[in-house]
Amino acid sequence: MSPKPDSLSPLPACAPGTLPARTDVLIIGGGLLGCAAAYYLSLAGVSVTLIEQGELGLQASSQNAGSLHFQMEYRMIEAGLEASKRALQAMPLHVDAIACWRSLEEQLGVSVGVRQKGGFMLAETAQQAQVLEQKSRLENQAGLKVELLDRAALQAKAPYLSDSVLMGAFCADEGKADPRRASLALAAAARALGAQIVNQCQVVDLKRVGSDWQAQVLSGEQCRSNQVLIAAGVWSGRIAQMTGSQLPVSPIALTMTATARTAPFMDYLFQHVGRRLSLKQTAEGTVLI
């Protein structure tokens, strides 16, 4: 059983002698993606070192609503059918992620707030309903189980929805999780498997030296690796530039609103097929919008 996330021992800061001279894979960035990669690579027997310029999971991985939304989102379909087909190429990863999240708490031995009660994408106009039908057909062909529900079926499942909602695409595997707790739990499990994780460690140079990658951090320490995974969020483009590569990154700020606490009434995750909008209720009773 892996260490509980709240019992994660203090991580070392980047001081002389902290970084190993060599590792199989160097991960730059300690958010959910970096911590998950460190865990699964370590589980596969790979030597891993993860370096984080601040503290684990304190940026985007703790500033989001934690939606487990496996249907194609609005931004994947807003540009039309051909753009949707391109986005569909990632659907095998969506399907794989469903199984990963379902087994994660049992695998780690701790709760990270995973609740997969199902999720809807909603349509309020005939045009939006047509988009929903096209999207759902593509998803089912790609292996994601999505069911189209009319107004009567929606009313039976979620009677609190507005009468303006005409149709919903329901995926029983969707839900939510706590990304901050998940990040820490994955990091703790990765360390238990031998991964080196170092906080307060900023990369200032990344280049090829022979067949290796060599990273240098602010303290002057260097680490060589066979491969590098850049998982640094909005800083990923800056890291990639050190190697001479261009990685377009466009930070987009989203607004998240939490209501006052109320009695549980909303089991599902909701998103909209025609707008950037999602809804869910937390275990504490607040509705995240």
3D architecture notes:
By secondary structure, the protein is of the alpha/beta class. 29% of the residues lie in helices and 22% in strands. It has a six-stranded mixed beta sheet with strand order 8-2-1-11-10-9. A six-stranded mixed beta sheet has the order 5-6-4-12-13-14. 36% of the residues are buried.
What's the short version?
The chain has helices spanning 32-43, 74-77, 81-87, 91-108, 126-141, 151-157, 179-192, 236-242, and strands at 22-28, 48-51, 67-68, 119-123, 147-149, 167-171, 175-176, 196-198, 203-209, 212-217, 222-230, 269-272, 278-281, 287-288.
- Uncertain spans: none
Largest pleated sheet: 6 strands, mixed
Q: How do the helices and strands follow one another from N- to C-terminus?
A: EHEEHHHEHEHEEHEEEEHEEE
Number of strands: 14
The strands making up the biggest β-sheet line up spatially as 8-2-1-11-10-9
**Cα distance spanning the termini:** 35 Å
Which structural category fits the helices and strands?
alpha/beta
Approximately what portion of the residues adopt beta-strand conformation? 15-25%
Number of helices: 8
C-alpha-based Rg, rounded: 21 Å
Q: Tell me the overall shape.
A: elongated
Helical amount: 25-40%
The overall pLDDT, averaged over residues, is 91
SSE arrangement:
Elements: E1 22-28, H1 32-43, E2 48-51, E3 67-68, H2 74-77, H3 81-87, H4 91-108, E4 119-123, H5 126-141, E5 147-149, H6 151-157, E6 167-171, E7 175-176, H7 179-192, E8 196-198, E9 203-209, E10 212-217, E11 222-230, H8 236-242, E12 269-272, E13 278-281, E14 287-288
Parallel strand pairs: 1-2, 1-11, 2-8, 4-12
Antiparallel strand pairs: 3-7, 4-6, 5-6, 9-10, 10-11, 12-13, 13-14
Helix pairs in contact: 1-7
